[in-house]
Every structure is written in structure tokens, then in C-alpha cells.
Amino acid sequence: MADLDHLRDRFARALVGARGGDGPDPAPYADNLLARWQEPQRHYHTLTHLTAVLDRVDVLEEYADRPDLVRLAAWFHDAVYLPDRSENEERSARLAERALPEAGLPAEGTAEVARLVRLTTAHDPAEDDRDGQVLCDADLAILAAPPTAYAAYTAAVREEYGFVPSDAFREGRSAILRQLLELPRLFRTPYGEREWEATARYNLTSELEMLSL
Questions:
Q1: pLDDT value at position 1?
Q2: Both ends of the chain: CA-CA distance in Å?
Q3: CA–CA separation, 81 vs 95, rounded Å?
Q4: pLDDT value for 32
Q5: Is 19 exposed, middle or buried (CB count within 10 Å of its CB: 0-12, 13-18, 19+)?
Q6: pLDDT given for residue 2 in this prediction
Q7: Can you tell me the distance from the alpha carbon of 14 to that of 61, in angstroms, rounded to the nearest whole number?
Q8: Rounded to whole angstroms, how far apart are CA atoms 176 and 204?
Q9: Quick one: 213 exposed, middle or buried, by C-beta within 10 A (0-12, 13-18, 19+)?
Q10: Which residue has the higher pLDDT, 2 or 98?
């Protein structure tokens, strides 16, 4: 079970760090996001995933220019999630654009958070986009999980798409795996490339082979 109080504190620290100075109480904004991350249609995109991404942003913090904005983007990146919709990242970015100005984040910071959220659609940040690289690496780090954890991840993804017939799911999932494997690098930070790249490619290749059986 996720520690909700600890997560509320993490959101507050990221928001205050990003906006600086005084502003509205972060708690209502944290509670709204926590409620979203606990919606019943979620099986992988849950508080466990949110916590893992936040933890990985902490690991990669040294590579970010504005780590607190990256943390806020992590909070929002799957805040809107309906498995049968294709515009979740866009709707999540728009949620950030509505909520963060109310929470006291300046316009430039809000725009950057929304940009980062939209970047998680393709996970292909530019070579000079340090914050984008950190968020994308943190989000994709599950691909380098040990075998048992990777199997649990793929099972949870399948459960989220339980409404999709098996043949259609295999086809769609295989296309996503090929798209990822075609990227020159899955991970763009030095840490991610060193620690996660080889294992992630092995996991993706193995899953793709299993889907083709």
C-alpha cells in the first residue's frame, strides 16, 4: 500500500520548490491527484507506478536542470488515464495547465510541466532536453525490471486492456514494443543507459517473442 501522507508531502515539497515563496495550500491539489491515481480502471498506472517514477526521478536528479518541475510532471503524466482513450497524455497536460496556475506555479513553470507530460507520449526527448530525458527515463525504467517484476508489469497492462480481444492486444502491444526497440536508445541519461538499457532491451525482445507464439 502506498503511504498517502508521504506522497502528499512529496507533492508539497515539489510544488513549493518549483514555485518558490508562498502560495495556496498544496494539500487539495495533492488529494485530487491521489484520487485520480487510485481510479478503479487502473492496474499498472497506479500509485505504485507514480511512486516508482518519483523514486527514479530522485535517482536521476543530478541530470535534471529543474528537478522539481520534473517531479510535478511525474505527478501529472498519467493523472488522466482511460485505457480506451488515445489522448491521455494530452488531457493530463491540460489538467496541469489548469491546476498548476491555481496552485501558484508561474506560467513558465506550468508550461514546462505540460511540455514534459506531453513528451511521455513518444518518450523521445531531444539530446539537449535534460529534464525531458530524466522524466522519460524514470517512466520507462520499469522496462528494466527483474523477471518477476516485469511479468507483473505486463500482466497489469493486459488487465487494463481487458476489453481488447487477445489477437488485437497482441498486435497492438507488439507494435509498441517494436517502436521502443527501434529507438536508438531507450534511456538518455548516463545512469539510465548504463544501468537499464541492456536489461530493458532483453525484456522487450523476450516479450515480443512470446507475443508472436
A1: 66
A2: 35
A3: 12
A4: 98
A5: buried
A6: 74
A7: 12
A8: 10
A9: exposed
A10: 98
